[in-house]
Amino acid sequence: MIRSTLLAIGMVAAIATGAQATDRPNVVIFLADDLGWNDVGFHGGDQIETPSLDRLAREGAELNRFYTTPICSPTRAALMTGRDPLRLGVAYGVIMPWHTNGIHPDEHFMPESFRAAGYQTAMVGKWHLGHAQQTYHPNQRGFEHFYGHLHTEVGFFPPFANQGGKDFQRNGESISDEGYESFLLADEASRWIQERDPGKPFFLYVPFIAPHTPLDAPEDLKAKYADIPDKREPARSRQTDFSRRMRKLSLMPSARPMYAAVVDGMDQAIGRVLDTLDREGLAENTIVLFFSDNGGAAYATGGADNIPLRGGKGETFEGGIRVVAAMRWPAQIEAGSKMTSIMSAMDVFPTLAEAAGIQARNEKKLDGGSLWAAIANGDEVPRDELLFFASETPISGQFNLTAFDDEWKLVQDVRQGLLGADVTNHLFRIADDPNEYNNLAEQHPEQVERLAKAIHQWRHMHPMSGTRHQLVPPPGWRAPLDWATYPVPIEDLQETSAPGMPPEGTLPVLDWQHGEAGRLIYDCEPFAILGGGLCK
User: Fold this and answer.
1) Is residue 469 in a domain?
2) Helices (H), 33-180
3) Contact yes or no for 82/366 (Cβ under 8 A)
4) pLDDT per position as a tens digit, 84-143
């Protein structure tokens, strides 16, 4: 594989230049939540002030074709593991408060590799990768320090709650810090940087809840954007544009002004952390990566703008999966450069490992590859394998699917009913038609057939009990008073994962019989048993 060869070359170069010595770079990852493509200055957005994000792009490299999943938890899973969230069982829907699943404890997380290499590790912000057992907690996944929330949608002001249960903690202990969410995260990240051990490099992950709904902001920011017009063009997607029409018909106010205030607040928070790096003399040798977890929430209550891209959050058109992204490392990355090769959230782990000159200690095969040569040297890295994404959000049984490479992209809209399913195919050549105006499905049925078959086979990997979209909890479910008390302690859990109901010895046969319904055996490749392999 081309990417594997580049990874090997890059690792040798890193060792030769002393990147594995004590001067290893620090790493800071900022993650936005639902940021629109057209909502930053360096993409031409003129309604929202984003000087900090514009600074990162100006002083580093814009990652112009950076892709994520269309929704939240899957992107975070891909980021932390370098693995396909579909095989992890987190792809079609996010982890809801009433779910008991998370990312399998056998999966290796990126901060675990950095910690093993001598890095100090911390996470400040939104987790959303499991909360029911301590095995899923950030402190068990490589982060020495955790400050923030296990869930999404906790609000921007106290009491920071989800489903009525308080959700704000520091390393498992409930806290009651007061202030605006984005600024609290910036203050904690800055404090941690200032109080770090200066003799060791650090890995800091700062996932904001901004600009996710429910939107809110300090009074000065609300006043600043109160009068901006909602001049967004149609998203050219059924669900997004329908929600906007319904908003107008019901005389609801536009979410655009409040959304702009929240984005501005997040940008200010990022600026505070960048200023801390400057004051501490760390900016030159710190890798700063910024991206959004999915395309902007362009529907009525979201307020984002992805123009000229098509669609938005929850969809597999470009507006839902191609996101704002930039990386800065003054010591190694040319200021003002632009990386145009396809990069995904799955590629971040191997890319940062190579850049820092550390060993990625995963035992399971990574689905991502390193793009460090493309970022640092401007090398073109052809995509020699298809990239897949999926979502069942927001309507159960309605799937948004895609498979694409450098030349072709297929988007499938699957509407599943009780007695069948309707499939609408959209085929694009993104290099010629980046904004997806021209559906070539009828002109190239052979490409539709090829990519549709690949999507079908890819979906076989999904675990039988993996996450599906659920807007409401099981009947009668209740939330805890305080989510910090919710995870079951490790000492109260059995030592191994539960085997399930099938009698001993029957699982391989049953796994094969389930076929396209999904895997009973975790991390079992489709048809492995039929092809002579053995999944245990």
Assistant:
1) no
2) 51-59, 72-81, 85-88, 110-116
3) yes
4) 999 999 999 999 999 999 999 999 999 999 999 999 999 999 999 999 999 999 999 999
* CA distances, 103 to each of 217, 456, 482, 528 (Å): 32, 23, 22, 22
Residue 457: CB atoms within 10 A of its CB come to: 14
Same domain, 413 and 295: no
- Clarify whether residues 55 and 123 are in a common domain: yes
Locate 13 and state its tokens. Answer: 């170069």
Mean per-residue pLDDT for 275-281? 98
Do the domain assignments include residue 220?
Answer: yes
182/303 same-domain check: yes
Q: Could you list the residue range(s) of the whole structural domain that residue 524 is in?
A: 500-536
Inform me whether the pLDDT recorded for 385 exceeds 70: yes
Strand order in the sheet with 202-207: 173-174, 169-170, 145-149, 120-126, 202-207, 26-32, 286-292, 325-328, 61-63, 337-339
DSSP 8-state symbol, 473: P
Reported pTM? 0.94
- Return the pLDDT at 504: 81
d(CA 455, CA 426): 13
Domain boundary among 337, 354, 377: 377
- Identify whether residues 424 and 517 lie together within a single domain: no
Tell me, yes or no, whether 310 lies in a domain: yes
Proportion of the chain in helix, strand, coil states, percent, rounded to 5: 30, 15, 50
Whether 180 has a pLDDT exceeding 50, the answer reads: yes
Residues 414 and 270 both lie in one domain: no
Q: Domain end: 409, 444, 459, which one?
A: 459
Q: What is the mean pLDDT of residues 311-326?
A: 98
322 forms beta bridges with 67
Residues 6 or more apart from 282 whose CB is under 8 A from it? 26, 193
Domain count, the chain: 3
Whether residue 341 is contained in a domain is answered as yes
Beta bridge partners of 414: 399, 423
Amino acid, single-letter form, for residue 460: H
Q: What is the pLDDT of residues 409-455, one digit of tens each?
A: 999 999 999 999 999 999 999 999 999 999 999 999 999 999 999 99
Instruction: Please enumerate in sequence order all residues whose Cβ is within 8 A of that of 104, keeping only pairs 6 or more positions apart, or say none.
Output: 88, 89, 497, 522, 523
